[in-house]
Amino acid sequence: MKLVKLLANLGYGSRREIEGHLRKGRVTDASGRVLGLKDFPPHAEIRFQGEPLDPPAPLTLLFHKPAGYTCSTDDPGDTIYDLLPSRFALRNPVLSPVGRLDKDTTGLLLMTDDGQLLHRLISPKHHVPKTYQVTLDRPLEGHEGDLFGGGELVLRGEEKPLLPAKLEVLGEKEARLTIEEGRYHQIRRMFAAAGNHVVALKRVAIGALALPEDLEEGAWRVLEAEELGLVKGG
Ligand code: URA
User: Fold this and answer.
1) Which of the 8 DSSP states describes residue 115?
2) From the CB of 185, is ligand 1 less than 6 Å away?
């Protein structure tokens, strides 16, 4: 890999733009020595406008999604990419959300360029649990735990029953629900099937990884190695 290609893959610009940055002396090593087209020091030694480079692939980000942002650039309006450095949307391989959250859903969202990890986390075959905190319009009636846990609930317009899900009642209109798959609007549709309506939904955990309390809405950071272990499980 050459320096220009590395920087282009990290989203710092097109190859032509990077060549311009190099000519203007914006790419240096850690000591401030200006790098040229033929230089290629170790990743950790390279600086772009004085700043260390973003990590190379594979990269996984931990993100606290706020309400009002969609997970897909195909949708109109604000997207989660608006909350990340713009170069992240230009990385190759691309950083994709690990399962989409609805526009109004908040909470833990991972973004990764690691295809194997993505598959492992979203495939129902791997049974990685995702836990959501749910606020409801009407009080729970008491039958919901059995309805969701039985493995027989078929959502409207579908044929295959849902995998069993675990409901923990936290209050009259508050619950935690843990599911192992990610069908379209799944939790909202599950509660609709139970005659209720979800007014707020927040993902609080993926596998054994909880949404860190100190990560504010809209904030993100690189997922640490131990956290990756918590997500993947055994
Ligand atoms: N279930 C939903 O209905 N929406 C989400 O965003 C996630 C799970």
Assistant:
1) H
2) yes
pLDDT grade for 234, boundaries at 50, 70 and 90:
low
Range of the domain at 220: 60-123+209-232
**152: CATH:** 3.30.70.1560
When divided into structural domains, the chain yields a total of 3
In this structure, the answer to whether residues 47 and 74 fall within a common structural domain is no
| Cross-strand bridge partners of residue 65 | 107
Tokens 């989409």 belong to which residue? 100
Mean pLDDT in the chain? 95
Instruction: Please state whether the predicted TM-score (pTM) of the whole model is above 0.85.
Output: yes
Please determine, for residue 74, whether its predicted confidence score (pLDDT) is greater than 90.
Answer: no
Task: Give nearest CA residue, ligand 1 atom 7.
Answer: 101
Instruction: Please tell me if the CB atom of residue 19 comes closer than 6 angstroms to any atom of ligand 1.
Output: no
How far, in Å, CA of 230 to CA of 211, rounded? 12
